[in-house]
Amino acid sequence: MATDCDAIVIGGGHNGLVCACYLAKAGLKVLVLEKCSEIGGMTNTQEVTLPGFHTDTHAICIQFANFSPVPNELGLADYGFELLHPDPCWSHPFPKGRALTVYRDVDRTCESISRFSQKDAETWRRLYQEFLVQKDAIGASMNSPPSAAEPASPDQYRYAMQSLRSWCNETFEAKETKCLASAWGVHIGASPDDIGGGSVACLFSMVVQHFGNNVVRGGMRQLPLALAGYLEAHGGSIRLDSQVKCVLVEDGKAIGVELADGEQVLCKQLIASSAHPRQLVLDLLGEQQVGPSIAQKMRRYELGEPVMVVYLALDRPPEFAAGGDVNQSVYAHCSEPTLEYFLRAFSESRAGHLPAHPFALVCHDTAAEPSRAPAGKALMKLVVQPIPYRITGDAAGQITGHDWDSVKEAFADRVIDHLSKNYIPGLADSIAKRVVHSPCDIERLLPSAIEGTNTHGACWPYQFGAMRPIPELAGYRSPINNVYLCGSGSHPGPGVTMAPGRNAAQVIYGDLGIDFKS
Protein backbone atom coordinates (compact mmCIF):
# COMPACT_ATOMS: atom_id res chain seq x y z
CA MET A 1 0.00 0.00 0.00
CA ALA A 2 2.72 2.46 -0.94
CA THR A 3 1.72 6.10 -1.28
CA ASP A 4 3.54 6.75 -4.53
CA CYS A 5 1.39 9.40 -6.19
CA ASP A 6 -0.07 12.78 -5.38
CA ALA A 7 -3.33 12.38 -7.27
CA ILE A 8 -5.46 9.53 -8.56
CA VAL A 9 -7.79 10.08 -11.51
CA ILE A 10 -10.54 7.49 -11.86
CA GLY A 11 -11.34 6.83 -15.52
CA GLY A 12 -9.26 7.10 -18.68
CA GLY A 13 -11.84 8.71 -20.93
CA HIS A 14 -10.96 12.02 -22.52
CA ASN A 15 -12.17 14.16 -19.60
CA GLY A 16 -10.30 12.13 -17.00
CA LEU A 17 -7.15 12.35 -19.10
CA VAL A 18 -7.55 16.11 -19.59
CA CYS A 19 -7.82 16.63 -15.84
CA ALA A 20 -4.82 14.34 -15.26
CA CYS A 21 -2.73 16.28 -17.79
CA TYR A 22 -3.37 19.60 -16.07
CA LEU A 23 -2.54 18.11 -12.67
CA ALA A 24 0.70 16.74 -14.09
CA LYS A 25 1.39 20.12 -15.66
CA ALA A 26 1.21 21.61 -12.16
CA GLY A 27 3.91 19.20 -11.01
CA LEU A 28 1.73 16.58 -9.30
CA LYS A 29 2.57 12.93 -9.70
CA VAL A 30 -0.63 11.55 -11.26
CA LEU A 31 -1.93 8.01 -11.65
CA VAL A 32 -4.92 7.29 -13.92
CA LEU A 33 -6.85 4.11 -13.12
CA GLU A 34 -8.87 2.77 -16.06
CA LYS A 35 -11.16 -0.25 -15.61
CA CYS A 36 -11.01 -1.30 -19.28
CA SER A 37 -8.09 -2.77 -21.18
CA GLU A 38 -7.60 0.45 -23.15
CA ILE A 39 -8.07 4.16 -22.59
CA GLY A 40 -10.56 6.34 -24.41
CA GLY A 41 -14.01 5.42 -23.13
CA MET A 42 -16.41 6.95 -25.64
CA THR A 43 -13.55 8.56 -27.56
CA ASN A 44 -12.19 5.45 -29.19
CA THR A 45 -11.55 3.83 -32.56
CA GLN A 46 -11.64 0.08 -33.13
CA GLU A 47 -11.92 -2.58 -35.82
CA VAL A 48 -15.40 -3.53 -34.67
CA THR A 49 -16.57 -5.23 -37.86
CA LEU A 50 -13.70 -6.46 -40.07
CA PRO A 51 -9.91 -6.00 -40.15
CA GLY A 52 -8.99 -2.73 -41.83
CA PHE A 53 -12.30 -1.03 -40.99
CA HIS A 54 -11.45 1.48 -38.27
CA THR A 55 -14.65 2.93 -36.83
CA ASP A 56 -15.09 5.56 -34.14
CA THR A 57 -17.02 3.44 -31.68
CA HIS A 58 -19.04 6.30 -30.17
CA ALA A 59 -18.12 9.96 -30.68
CA ILE A 60 -16.94 10.71 -34.20
CA CYS A 61 -16.95 14.51 -34.62
CA ILE A 62 -15.38 17.47 -32.83
CA GLN A 63 -18.09 20.11 -32.40
CA PHE A 64 -18.16 21.97 -29.06
CA ALA A 65 -14.52 21.01 -28.44
CA ASN A 66 -13.68 23.62 -31.08
CA PHE A 67 -14.22 26.10 -28.23
CA SER A 68 -11.61 24.34 -26.12
CA PRO A 69 -8.18 25.83 -25.34
CA VAL A 70 -6.90 22.37 -24.34
CA PRO A 71 -5.20 21.39 -27.63
CA ASN A 72 -3.15 24.60 -27.66
CA GLU A 73 -2.46 24.76 -23.93
CA LEU A 74 -1.20 21.16 -23.86
CA GLY A 75 0.38 21.22 -27.33
CA LEU A 76 -1.52 18.11 -28.38
CA ALA A 77 -0.36 18.48 -31.98
CA ASP A 78 3.08 17.40 -30.74
CA TYR A 79 1.50 14.14 -29.60
CA GLY A 80 -0.35 13.31 -32.83
CA PHE A 81 -3.64 15.19 -32.48
CA GLU A 82 -4.82 16.67 -35.79
CA LEU A 83 -8.23 17.66 -37.10
CA LEU A 84 -9.72 17.12 -40.53
CA HIS A 85 -12.35 19.57 -41.77
CA PRO A 86 -14.82 17.73 -44.00
CA ASP A 87 -17.28 19.66 -46.11
CA PRO A 88 -20.31 19.41 -46.06
CA CYS A 89 -20.82 19.58 -42.31
CA TRP A 90 -24.00 17.54 -42.32
CA SER A 91 -27.03 16.74 -44.45
CA HIS A 92 -30.66 16.06 -43.71
CA PRO A 93 -32.11 13.69 -46.32
CA PHE A 94 -35.87 13.34 -46.67
CA PRO A 95 -37.82 10.64 -48.54
CA LYS A 96 -38.13 10.85 -52.32
CA GLY A 97 -34.56 12.03 -52.82
CA ARG A 98 -34.81 15.49 -51.26
CA ALA A 99 -32.28 16.91 -48.81
CA LEU A 100 -30.95 19.97 -47.05
CA THR A 101 -27.20 20.32 -46.68
CA VAL A 102 -25.13 22.51 -44.36
CA TYR A 103 -21.73 23.58 -45.68
CA ARG A 104 -18.79 25.30 -44.03
CA ASP A 105 -19.66 28.31 -46.18
CA VAL A 106 -22.85 29.87 -44.80
CA ASP A 107 -23.72 31.20 -48.27
CA ARG A 108 -23.86 27.68 -49.65
CA THR A 109 -25.95 26.59 -46.67
CA CYS A 110 -28.41 29.39 -47.25
CA GLU A 111 -28.60 28.47 -50.92
CA SER A 112 -29.57 24.92 -49.94
CA ILE A 113 -32.20 26.17 -47.48
CA SER A 114 -33.59 28.64 -50.02
CA ARG A 115 -34.76 25.74 -52.19
CA PHE A 116 -37.36 25.15 -49.47
CA SER A 117 -37.79 28.69 -48.15
CA GLN A 118 -36.05 31.94 -49.00
CA LYS A 119 -37.30 33.38 -45.73
CA ASP A 120 -35.73 30.52 -43.79
CA ALA A 121 -32.42 31.10 -45.58
CA GLU A 122 -32.46 34.71 -44.44
CA THR A 123 -33.37 33.62 -40.91
CA TRP A 124 -30.49 31.12 -40.85
CA ARG A 125 -28.06 33.86 -41.82
CA ARG A 126 -29.45 36.12 -39.08
CA LEU A 127 -29.11 33.36 -36.47
CA TYR A 128 -25.54 32.82 -37.57
CA GLN A 129 -24.68 36.49 -37.25
CA GLU A 130 -26.21 36.52 -33.75
CA PHE A 131 -24.10 33.48 -32.87
CA LEU A 132 -20.91 35.23 -33.97
CA VAL A 133 -21.64 38.06 -31.55
CA GLN A 134 -22.15 35.57 -28.71
CA LYS A 135 -19.42 33.07 -29.64
CA ASP A 136 -16.68 34.24 -27.28
CA ALA A 137 -19.07 34.44 -24.35
CA ILE A 138 -20.33 30.91 -25.07
CA GLY A 139 -16.77 29.58 -25.15
CA ALA A 140 -15.88 31.36 -21.92
CA SER A 141 -18.97 29.95 -20.20
CA MET A 142 -18.21 26.40 -21.29
CA ASN A 143 -14.57 26.53 -20.27
CA SER A 144 -15.10 27.92 -16.78
CA PRO A 145 -16.70 26.43 -13.68
CA PRO A 146 -20.41 27.23 -13.54
CA SER A 147 -21.47 30.25 -11.56
CA ALA A 148 -24.83 31.41 -10.32
CA ALA A 149 -26.56 32.80 -13.37
CA GLU A 150 -27.58 36.42 -13.45
CA PRO A 151 -31.35 36.86 -13.50
CA ALA A 152 -32.56 36.29 -17.02
CA SER A 153 -34.83 38.71 -18.79
CA PRO A 154 -38.29 37.34 -19.58
CA ASP A 155 -37.28 36.90 -23.22
CA GLN A 156 -34.06 35.06 -22.28
CA TYR A 157 -35.94 32.80 -19.88
CA ARG A 158 -38.57 32.02 -22.49
CA TYR A 159 -35.91 31.15 -25.08
CA ALA A 160 -34.06 28.90 -22.64
CA MET A 161 -37.25 27.00 -21.79
CA GLN A 162 -38.76 26.78 -25.28
CA SER A 163 -39.44 23.38 -26.76
CA LEU A 164 -38.16 22.48 -30.19
CA ARG A 165 -41.66 22.72 -31.57
CA SER A 166 -42.23 26.18 -30.11
CA TRP A 167 -38.90 27.55 -31.27
CA CYS A 168 -39.02 25.97 -34.74
CA ASN A 169 -42.58 27.11 -35.38
CA GLU A 170 -41.83 30.73 -34.56
CA THR A 171 -38.43 30.73 -36.30
CA PHE A 172 -38.87 28.85 -39.60
CA GLU A 173 -41.69 28.45 -42.09
CA ALA A 174 -40.67 25.32 -44.04
CA LYS A 175 -41.18 21.99 -42.32
CA GLU A 176 -37.88 20.80 -43.76
CA THR A 177 -35.90 23.62 -42.12
CA LYS A 178 -37.61 22.87 -38.82
CA CYS A 179 -36.40 19.28 -39.09
CA LEU A 180 -32.89 20.38 -40.07
CA ALA A 181 -32.48 22.13 -36.72
CA SER A 182 -34.64 19.92 -34.53
CA ALA A 183 -32.79 16.68 -35.33
CA TRP A 184 -30.00 17.96 -33.09
CA GLY A 185 -32.39 17.60 -30.18
CA VAL A 186 -32.18 13.83 -30.60
CA HIS A 187 -28.47 14.00 -29.78
CA ILE A 188 -29.30 15.09 -26.23
CA GLY A 189 -32.52 13.09 -25.95
CA ALA A 190 -34.95 15.98 -26.41
CA SER A 191 -38.26 15.32 -28.14
CA PRO A 192 -40.08 18.13 -29.98
CA ASP A 193 -42.13 18.97 -26.89
CA ASP A 194 -39.47 18.70 -24.16
CA ILE A 195 -38.57 21.96 -22.45
CA GLY A 196 -35.23 23.48 -23.35
CA GLY A 197 -34.88 21.73 -26.69
CA GLY A 198 -35.17 24.85 -28.85
CA SER A 199 -32.11 26.67 -27.54
CA VAL A 200 -30.02 23.50 -27.73
CA ALA A 201 -31.00 22.88 -31.36
CA CYS A 202 -30.16 26.46 -32.28
CA LEU A 203 -26.79 26.32 -30.54
CA PHE A 204 -25.83 22.96 -32.09
CA SER A 205 -26.79 24.19 -35.54
CA MET A 206 -24.78 27.38 -35.33
CA VAL A 207 -21.73 25.78 -33.71
CA VAL A 208 -21.46 23.24 -36.52
CA GLN A 209 -22.23 25.89 -39.14
CA HIS A 210 -19.32 27.97 -37.83
CA PHE A 211 -16.67 25.42 -36.83
CA GLY A 212 -17.70 22.49 -39.00
CA ASN A 213 -18.20 18.85 -38.05
CA ASN A 214 -14.51 18.18 -37.64
CA VAL A 215 -12.98 14.72 -37.44
CA VAL A 216 -9.79 13.54 -35.74
CA ARG A 217 -7.24 12.28 -38.26
CA GLY A 218 -6.71 8.57 -37.69
CA GLY A 219 -9.85 8.26 -35.58
CA MET A 220 -11.16 9.71 -32.33
CA ARG A 221 -8.79 7.43 -30.41
CA GLN A 222 -5.96 9.80 -31.36
CA LEU A 223 -7.35 12.32 -28.84
CA PRO A 224 -6.91 10.12 -25.73
CA LEU A 225 -3.61 8.84 -27.13
CA ALA A 226 -2.33 12.41 -27.47
CA LEU A 227 -3.48 13.21 -23.93
CA ALA A 228 -1.79 10.05 -22.65
CA GLY A 229 1.38 11.09 -24.46
CA TYR A 230 1.36 14.47 -22.74
CA LEU A 231 0.60 12.90 -19.36
CA GLU A 232 3.41 10.39 -19.54
CA ALA A 233 5.85 13.04 -20.78
CA HIS A 234 5.06 15.00 -17.61
CA GLY A 235 5.59 12.15 -15.20
CA GLY A 236 2.09 10.73 -15.04
CA SER A 237 1.13 7.10 -15.54
CA ILE A 238 -1.89 5.00 -16.53
CA ARG A 239 -2.91 1.60 -15.21
CA LEU A 240 -5.35 -0.41 -17.35
CA ASP A 241 -7.66 -3.21 -16.16
CA SER A 242 -7.84 -1.44 -12.80
CA GLN A 243 -11.45 -1.12 -11.72
CA VAL A 244 -11.98 1.00 -8.64
CA LYS A 245 -14.27 -0.62 -6.08
CA CYS A 246 -14.42 2.24 -3.57
CA VAL A 247 -12.70 5.39 -2.38
CA LEU A 248 -10.88 5.00 0.93
CA VAL A 249 -11.78 7.77 3.39
CA GLU A 250 -10.21 8.49 6.78
CA ASP A 251 -11.24 11.38 9.02
CA GLY A 252 -13.27 12.96 6.22
CA LYS A 253 -10.41 12.86 3.69
CA ALA A 254 -9.78 10.45 0.80
CA ILE A 255 -6.46 8.64 1.15
CA GLY A 256 -6.72 6.36 -1.87
CA VAL A 257 -8.84 3.68 -3.51
CA GLU A 258 -9.48 -0.01 -3.28
CA LEU A 259 -9.57 -1.93 -6.56
CA ALA A 260 -11.95 -4.74 -7.45
CA ASP A 261 -9.19 -7.30 -6.77
CA GLY A 262 -8.64 -5.96 -3.24
CA GLU A 263 -5.48 -3.98 -3.91
CA GLN A 264 -5.30 -0.60 -2.23
CA VAL A 265 -3.69 2.32 -4.05
CA LEU A 266 -2.97 5.34 -1.88
CA CYS A 267 -2.40 8.97 -2.80
CA LYS A 268 -1.09 12.01 -0.94
CA GLN A 269 -3.41 14.80 -2.03
CA LEU A 270 -6.58 14.17 -4.04
CA ILE A 271 -8.81 12.01 -6.19
CA ALA A 272 -10.65 13.15 -9.33
CA SER A 273 -13.35 10.95 -10.87
CA SER A 274 -14.63 10.97 -14.43
CA ALA A 275 -17.02 8.12 -13.65
CA HIS A 276 -20.75 8.63 -13.94
CA PRO A 277 -21.70 10.87 -10.98
CA ARG A 278 -24.25 8.32 -9.74
CA GLN A 279 -21.48 5.70 -9.58
CA LEU A 280 -19.10 8.03 -7.77
CA VAL A 281 -21.63 9.09 -5.16
CA LEU A 282 -23.49 5.83 -4.56
CA ASP A 283 -20.87 3.17 -5.30
CA LEU A 284 -17.38 4.60 -4.86
CA LEU A 285 -18.15 6.89 -1.91
CA GLY A 286 -21.42 5.53 -0.57
CA GLU A 287 -24.25 6.97 1.45
CA GLN A 288 -22.30 6.77 4.71
CA GLN A 289 -19.79 9.27 3.34
CA VAL A 290 -22.06 11.60 1.35
CA GLY A 291 -25.11 11.57 3.62
CA PRO A 292 -28.70 10.48 2.94
CA SER A 293 -29.82 13.74 1.30
CA ILE A 294 -27.19 13.71 -1.45
CA ALA A 295 -27.56 9.95 -1.91
CA GLN A 296 -31.30 10.32 -2.43
CA LYS A 297 -30.82 13.15 -4.95
CA MET A 298 -28.38 11.02 -6.93
CA ARG A 299 -30.79 8.09 -6.95
CA ARG A 300 -33.36 10.31 -8.64
CA TYR A 301 -30.78 11.82 -11.02
CA GLU A 302 -32.23 11.25 -14.48
CA LEU A 303 -30.11 9.20 -16.85
CA GLY A 304 -31.32 10.27 -20.30
CA GLU A 305 -32.15 8.24 -23.38
CA PRO A 306 -30.39 4.94 -24.23
CA VAL A 307 -28.87 4.31 -27.63
CA MET A 308 -28.25 1.35 -29.91
CA VAL A 309 -25.34 1.36 -32.34
CA VAL A 310 -25.12 -0.60 -35.59
CA TYR A 311 -21.61 -0.80 -37.04
CA LEU A 312 -21.40 -1.48 -40.77
CA ALA A 313 -18.51 -2.50 -42.99
CA LEU A 314 -19.63 -1.77 -46.56
CA ASP A 315 -18.23 -3.28 -49.74
CA ARG A 316 -18.77 0.02 -51.57
CA PRO A 317 -19.44 3.66 -50.68
CA PRO A 318 -23.10 4.39 -49.92
CA GLU A 319 -25.26 6.21 -52.45
CA PHE A 320 -28.04 8.28 -50.92
CA ALA A 321 -31.21 8.76 -52.91
CA ALA A 322 -30.67 12.51 -52.61
CA GLY A 323 -27.24 12.10 -54.22
CA GLY A 324 -24.77 14.94 -54.66
CA ASP A 325 -23.04 16.27 -51.58
CA VAL A 326 -25.18 14.16 -49.25
CA ASN A 327 -22.92 11.24 -50.20
CA GLN A 328 -19.94 13.16 -48.79
CA SER A 329 -21.55 14.23 -45.52
CA VAL A 330 -19.98 12.81 -42.38
CA TYR A 331 -23.38 13.14 -40.66
CA ALA A 332 -26.81 12.48 -42.13
CA HIS A 333 -30.04 12.97 -40.18
CA CYS A 334 -32.58 10.95 -42.17
CA SER A 335 -36.21 11.67 -41.37
CA GLU A 336 -39.66 12.41 -42.66
CA PRO A 337 -40.17 16.18 -43.08
CA THR A 338 -42.23 16.64 -39.95
CA LEU A 339 -41.66 17.08 -36.23
CA GLU A 340 -44.34 14.46 -35.67
CA TYR A 341 -41.91 11.83 -36.93
CA PHE A 342 -39.56 12.57 -34.03
CA LEU A 343 -42.42 12.93 -31.55
CA ARG A 344 -43.80 9.53 -32.52
CA ALA A 345 -40.43 7.83 -32.02
CA PHE A 346 -39.98 9.41 -28.58
CA SER A 347 -43.53 8.59 -27.53
CA GLU A 348 -43.18 4.96 -28.55
CA SER A 349 -39.79 4.61 -26.92
CA ARG A 350 -40.81 6.24 -23.64
CA ALA A 351 -43.75 3.84 -23.49
CA GLY A 352 -41.23 0.99 -23.64
CA HIS A 353 -41.96 0.13 -27.27
CA LEU A 354 -39.46 -0.40 -30.07
CA PRO A 355 -40.19 2.47 -32.52
CA ALA A 356 -41.96 1.44 -35.70
CA HIS A 357 -39.93 3.90 -37.80
CA PRO A 358 -36.67 4.34 -35.88
CA PHE A 359 -34.45 7.39 -36.27
CA ALA A 360 -30.76 6.75 -36.87
CA LEU A 361 -27.93 9.23 -36.96
CA VAL A 362 -25.91 8.05 -39.97
CA CYS A 363 -22.18 8.51 -39.35
CA HIS A 364 -20.20 8.08 -42.56
CA ASP A 365 -16.63 7.73 -41.29
CA THR A 366 -15.04 7.23 -44.69
CA ALA A 367 -16.62 10.38 -46.12
CA ALA A 368 -14.24 12.27 -43.86
CA GLU A 369 -11.27 9.92 -44.08
CA PRO A 370 -11.35 7.21 -46.79
CA SER A 371 -8.25 5.50 -45.37
CA ARG A 372 -10.26 4.17 -42.43
CA ALA A 373 -11.48 1.36 -44.72
CA PRO A 374 -9.75 -0.67 -47.43
CA ALA A 375 -9.64 0.90 -50.89
CA GLY A 376 -13.06 0.99 -52.52
CA LYS A 377 -14.82 0.02 -49.29
CA ALA A 378 -16.68 2.18 -46.79
CA LEU A 379 -17.51 2.44 -43.14
CA MET A 380 -20.76 3.52 -41.55
CA LYS A 381 -22.19 3.70 -38.04
CA LEU A 382 -25.88 4.05 -37.18
CA VAL A 383 -26.66 5.57 -33.79
CA VAL A 384 -30.29 4.66 -33.12
CA GLN A 385 -32.14 6.89 -30.66
CA PRO A 386 -34.64 7.13 -29.00
CA ILE A 387 -35.15 3.54 -27.92
CA PRO A 388 -36.27 1.95 -24.64
CA TYR A 389 -33.91 0.27 -22.18
CA ARG A 390 -36.69 -1.95 -20.86
CA ILE A 391 -38.78 -3.31 -23.73
CA THR A 392 -42.50 -3.73 -23.09
CA GLY A 393 -43.63 -4.13 -26.69
CA ASP A 394 -43.12 -3.29 -30.34
CA ALA A 395 -44.90 -0.32 -31.90
CA ALA A 396 -45.02 -2.17 -35.22
CA GLY A 397 -46.41 -5.36 -33.65
CA GLN A 398 -43.76 -7.55 -35.32
CA ILE A 399 -41.02 -8.21 -32.74
CA THR A 400 -42.19 -10.33 -29.82
CA GLY A 401 -39.15 -10.52 -27.52
CA HIS A 402 -38.73 -8.29 -24.48
CA ASP A 403 -34.98 -8.55 -23.86
CA TRP A 404 -32.35 -6.83 -25.98
CA ASP A 405 -30.16 -9.89 -26.49
CA SER A 406 -33.00 -11.64 -28.31
CA VAL A 407 -34.42 -8.69 -30.30
CA LYS A 408 -31.44 -6.53 -31.26
CA GLU A 409 -30.78 -8.22 -34.61
CA ALA A 410 -34.42 -8.04 -35.66
CA PHE A 411 -34.62 -4.41 -34.64
CA ALA A 412 -31.37 -3.66 -36.52
CA ASP A 413 -33.01 -5.26 -39.58
CA ARG A 414 -35.83 -2.74 -39.20
CA VAL A 415 -33.41 0.18 -39.01
CA ILE A 416 -31.49 -0.91 -42.10
CA ASP A 417 -34.63 -1.75 -44.07
CA HIS A 418 -36.06 1.68 -43.19
CA LEU A 419 -32.90 3.44 -44.42
CA SER A 420 -32.63 1.28 -47.54
CA LYS A 421 -36.24 1.86 -48.54
CA ASN A 422 -36.38 5.60 -47.94
CA TYR A 423 -32.89 7.12 -47.97
CA ILE A 424 -29.97 4.86 -49.00
CA PRO A 425 -31.05 2.44 -51.76
CA GLY A 426 -28.87 -0.65 -51.81
CA LEU A 427 -27.56 -0.18 -48.27
CA ALA A 428 -28.69 -3.62 -47.13
CA ASP A 429 -27.05 -5.29 -50.15
CA SER A 430 -23.72 -3.51 -49.62
CA ILE A 431 -23.12 -4.70 -46.05
CA ALA A 432 -20.07 -6.94 -45.77
CA LYS A 433 -20.38 -7.26 -41.98
CA ARG A 434 -22.48 -5.70 -39.28
CA VAL A 435 -22.17 -5.67 -35.51
CA VAL A 436 -25.04 -4.53 -33.29
CA HIS A 437 -24.54 -3.10 -29.81
CA SER A 438 -27.77 -2.81 -27.86
CA PRO A 439 -28.08 -0.54 -24.82
CA CYS A 440 -27.31 -3.59 -22.67
CA ASP A 441 -24.18 -4.35 -24.72
CA ILE A 442 -23.01 -0.76 -24.37
CA GLU A 443 -23.57 -0.88 -20.62
CA ARG A 444 -21.58 -4.11 -20.38
CA LEU A 445 -18.71 -2.69 -22.44
CA LEU A 446 -18.71 0.72 -20.74
CA PRO A 447 -20.24 0.46 -17.25
CA SER A 448 -20.36 4.27 -16.95
CA ALA A 449 -22.95 4.15 -19.75
CA ILE A 450 -25.66 3.29 -17.24
CA GLU A 451 -28.68 1.68 -18.96
CA GLY A 452 -27.00 2.28 -22.32
CA THR A 453 -27.02 6.07 -22.03
CA ASN A 454 -24.08 8.11 -23.28
CA THR A 455 -24.59 11.50 -21.60
CA HIS A 456 -23.70 10.85 -17.92
CA GLY A 457 -27.13 12.20 -17.07
CA ALA A 458 -30.08 13.67 -18.93
CA CYS A 459 -29.63 17.15 -20.35
CA TRP A 460 -32.63 18.84 -18.79
CA PRO A 461 -32.58 22.46 -17.59
CA TYR A 462 -32.63 21.21 -13.99
CA GLN A 463 -29.55 19.06 -14.67
CA PHE A 464 -27.49 21.70 -16.47
CA GLY A 465 -24.94 24.34 -15.52
CA ALA A 466 -24.94 25.06 -11.78
CA MET A 467 -27.53 22.29 -11.41
CA ARG A 468 -25.35 19.51 -12.89
CA PRO A 469 -25.37 16.83 -11.67
CA ILE A 470 -27.05 18.22 -8.54
CA PRO A 471 -26.50 21.64 -6.94
CA GLU A 472 -24.41 20.22 -4.08
CA LEU A 473 -21.88 18.77 -6.57
CA ALA A 474 -22.08 21.36 -9.31
CA GLY A 475 -18.71 22.98 -8.60
CA TYR A 476 -16.77 19.74 -9.34
CA ARG A 477 -16.40 19.16 -5.58
CA SER A 478 -17.85 16.15 -3.77
CA PRO A 479 -18.87 16.03 -0.09
CA ILE A 480 -15.36 14.72 0.60
CA ASN A 481 -13.22 17.83 0.33
CA ASN A 482 -10.36 16.27 -1.66
CA VAL A 483 -12.54 14.22 -4.05
CA TYR A 484 -13.55 15.94 -7.28
CA LEU A 485 -15.79 15.26 -10.29
CA CYS A 486 -14.21 15.74 -13.73
CA GLY A 487 -16.52 13.91 -16.14
CA SER A 488 -19.48 14.66 -18.38
CA GLY A 489 -21.85 14.51 -15.44
CA SER A 490 -20.58 18.01 -14.64
CA HIS A 491 -20.82 21.34 -16.48
CA PRO A 492 -21.00 21.81 -19.43
CA GLY A 493 -22.23 18.26 -19.94
CA PRO A 494 -21.84 15.44 -22.46
CA GLY A 495 -20.08 15.12 -25.77
CA VAL A 496 -16.45 15.71 -26.63
CA THR A 497 -15.75 19.13 -25.14
CA MET A 498 -12.70 18.56 -22.88
CA ALA A 499 -14.32 21.19 -20.66
CA PRO A 500 -15.32 19.16 -17.56
CA GLY A 501 -11.78 17.85 -17.18
CA ARG A 502 -10.18 21.25 -17.61
CA ASN A 503 -12.76 23.03 -15.46
CA ALA A 504 -12.25 20.53 -12.64
CA ALA A 505 -8.51 21.14 -12.88
CA GLN A 506 -9.13 24.87 -12.48
CA VAL A 507 -11.03 24.21 -9.25
CA ILE A 508 -8.32 21.86 -7.98
CA TYR A 509 -5.61 24.41 -8.79
CA GLY A 510 -7.51 26.98 -6.76
CA ASP A 511 -7.88 24.63 -3.79
CA LEU A 512 -4.15 23.87 -3.92
CA GLY A 513 -3.21 27.54 -4.23
CA ILE A 514 -1.79 27.15 -7.74
CA ASP A 515 -2.24 29.83 -10.41
CA PHE A 516 -4.03 28.14 -13.32
CA LYS A 517 -2.84 30.81 -15.76
CA SER A 518 0.84 30.42 -14.92
What does this structure look like?
There is one protein chain. By secondary structure, the protein is α/β, with parallel strands linked by helices. It has 2 domains: 7-41 and 220-301 and 458-512, FAD/NAD(P)-binding domain, CATH 3.50.50; 90-216 and 305-445, Polyamine Oxidase, Chain A, domain 2 (Alpha-Beta Complex), CATH 3.90.660. The chain has 17 helices and 22 strands. The chain has helices spanning 14-25, 70-73, 106-114, 118-142, 154-161, 164-171, 175-187, 197-211, 222-233, 277-285, 287-290, 292-299, 339-350, 365-368, 404-422, 439-445, 499-512, and strands at residues 7-10, 30-33, 45-46, 55-56, 61-62, 83-84, 90-94, 98-102, 214-216, 237-239, 244-250, 253-259, 264-266, 270-273, 308-314, 331-333, 353-354, 360-363, 378-384, 393-394, 431-437, 483-485. The strands form 7 sheets. The chain has a 5-stranded parallel sheet, with helices on one face. Strand 12 and strand 13 form a beta hairpin. The two termini are 34 Å apart. The mean pLDDT is 95.
What shape does the CA trace take?
globular
The first-level CATH class of the largest domain is given as Alpha Beta
Rounded mean pLDDT is 95
Distance between the termini: 34 Å
Task: Report helical residue fraction.
Answer: 25-40%
Please identify, by name, the CATH architecture of the largest domain. Answer: Alpha-Beta Complex
Continuous helix count: 17
Helix/strand structural class: alpha/beta
CATH fold assignment of the largest domain: Polyamine Oxidase, Chain A, domain 2
Write down the domain tally.
2
Give the strand content.
Answer: 15-25%
